[in-house]
C-alpha cells in the first residue's frame, strides 16, 4: 500500500514538473513587447519663446520691453524672451556708437516679412503686436510640449563656451530644427523713448548676439521615450561681458516652436 502511494505521489510531482516546464517554455515564446506594459513619459512643461524684434531708434520698443518684464515676473522660466535688434529702426555698431543691431537680426526681420517695430513672434505663429503678447503666450502655455529640453553652458580653459543639450521625447516623434543662440544682458546703450527723448543710459536685456549653429539651426529628430544629445562650442567676442551671457536653445518646425530653454553661462568647474 505504501509503495502504491509513493508511486501516486511521484507521478503527481512529475505531472506538476511537466506543467511548470510547459509554462516556462510558453513564456519564452512571448515577444518582448508583449511581456512589458509601455508607460508613456510624463508630459513636459511647456516653455514659450518670444522673439522681440526691436530697435534703438524705435520709440515704442521700451513699452514692449515693459510687457516682457511683466510676463517674466509672472511666468518665470516658462517664458524665454529674445531681443532681436535689426530692421529699419535698428542701430549697427560704429566706432562711436554702441549699436546692437546685427546682420543676423536683419536676416530674421526680412525673412518673416515684418513691417513695423516693435513686433514679436510667439512660438513662431506669425507677427503679433506687443499689446497682444500676453494673450498669445498664455495660449501657447496651455499646449502640451512634445519634449523636454535640458541644457548646460560652461566656459572652458580656452575661453570658449561648451554647450550640451539633451532632448527627451515625451509625445510621438518630433522632427524639425534645433537652434542655439547666444544672448547678453545688462547692456547700457542709447535708446529712443516714447516721449521722443534719447536715453543714453538705457539698459538692454536678452540681446541676441550670435547664432551658435547657423542662422536656422541643425536638423533634429527625437522619438518618444528617447534621449538625443548634442554638443556645441562657441567663442564670445572680447567686448561681451562674460558674466552676462546666456544660451537659448529651441526646437522648431512648420508647426512653430515645440520647446525652448534658456540657461546662464557658468564658469568652468
**Strand tally, please?**
16
CATH superfamily of the domain at 48-145 and 180-210 and 240-264: Glutaredoxin
Just give the CATH class of the domain at 48-145 and 180-210 and 240-264.
Alpha Beta
Low-confidence stretches: 1-9, 13-17
At the fold tier of CATH, the topology name of the domain at 48-145 and 180-210 and 240-264 is Glutaredoxin
| Beta strand % | 35-45%
Describe the sheet with the most strands. Answer: 5 strands, antiparallel
Q: What string, H for helix and E for strand, traces the elements in order?
A: HHEHEHEEHEEEEEEEEEEEE
Cα distance, first to last residue?
82 Å
Structural class from helices and strands? alpha+beta
Helix content: 10-25%
Radius of gyration over all CA atoms, rounded: 28 Å
- CATH architectural type of the domain at 48-145 and 180-210 and 240-264: 3-Layer(aba) Sandwich
Number of helices: 5
Question: What is the global morphology?
Answer: globular
Overall pLDDT level:
90
